[in-house]
Amino acid sequence: MVMVAAPSVPSGLIALLIAVVPLWVVTLRSVTGDSPQAATTTGVLLGLGGLAVLMVPGMNGTVELSGVLILIAAPPLWSIGSFAATRLPMPASSYTASAYEMLAGASGCLVIGLLRDEAHGLDLGAVPLRCWAALSYLTIFGALIGFSSYAWLLGHAPLSLAATYAYVNPVIAVFLGWLILGEPPSWPVLAGGGVVVASVSLVVNTEHKTKEETDDRSQVMIGGEGEAASASPGDLKSPSSLK
Hints:
Blueprint: H1 2-5, H2 11-18, H3 21-31, H4 38-54, H5 65-85, H6 94-115, H7 129-156, H8 159-162, H9 165-180, H10 187-230
Helix pairs in contact: 3-5, 4-10, 6-7, 9-10
């Protein structure tokens, strides 16, 4: 959906619209009774504000309503899928899970591409080497490594923590633009990046503490049940012995 909308929407607006994924995750958790900590919600809102500042320089260019509507629909669909993945039976291997998900996504993209008649006039021999290199990079680091890591994270970390990738990606993009392409970051970019880093740190610390508290309560309950089960009949006083 992002690739379909990208030609008609500025990159800054794309990043901002996609970055509402953590907000949808918090909403889904609240609707299902799993209300996140107030600090987690604060961190999510803080990160969204920082990203808005970060993307101000990219808020230009022609915007088509159809592209914006597609981008508005993409985050809730992605969030619902991520939310369901933490509650439905999934393959034990995160690599297997990511393979199924990528096959489903690729099939959907193939259907959309055929419906849009994108195969008409396609000449693979005319594709420059630079494009093949970019595709190879996205296949290895974006799909095989990045997406598999996200699938693993969904099964081993709180969903609100996993969703913070939506804030981190633009900051990394700005850093790589400065490092590789020589694009000097402006003060809004630096300020927004700082806010984003602070928001992610807040969410990470909050979710980590919440997980530790939950684990401690589970250990206490398990320990209490174990002590009750190991008690011998002689340890239990009969009513007559209490007279």
